[in-house]
Amino acid sequence: MIKCPACETENLPGTFFCIDCGSSFLPSRIRETTASLGASSMAGGSGNLVIPPPAPPRDTAVPVLRVVILNSGRKLGFNTNQPIVIGRQDNKGSFYPDIDLSTDGGLEAGVSRRHAIIRIQAGNVCTLEDLGSSNGTFINREKLTANSPKALRHGDEVRLGNILLRIELTSQ
To answer: Can you give the pTM of this predicted structure?
Structure first.
């Protein structure tokens, strides 16, 4: 994970901007902008630059997911359409979940190693699925049936064992 120097939110490796505050992770030399040449410097030099109208919006944006672990205050940001596994790390079994609740007291709070999975799809659709955990997964106090995905919405509270998460969704 990449920790934002401005707000300390944890972001996925390969992320260029903080999902929480928007701070850039790019080196300053990459962020430098080039000077505008102006329309008369363009090929043709007439100064009459024709700009086509913007393309109509497409509903293919992948939602940006932020998970706030309310027990510890830790914030994690995701900008991916890959499944996000939530649980506890298992060094012996070489299992490292995308959201590791070990450091948040996950073992003591009853979080299974492979507790739940979040799937993010285009069209702002996110689902949460309990992976057959011992202590259950809840969305807004409603217990999920194991292996049966349920829609996640912005502001939902998710409980895994006794760990409480808040889900924040935005479009890219």
So the answer is: 0.65
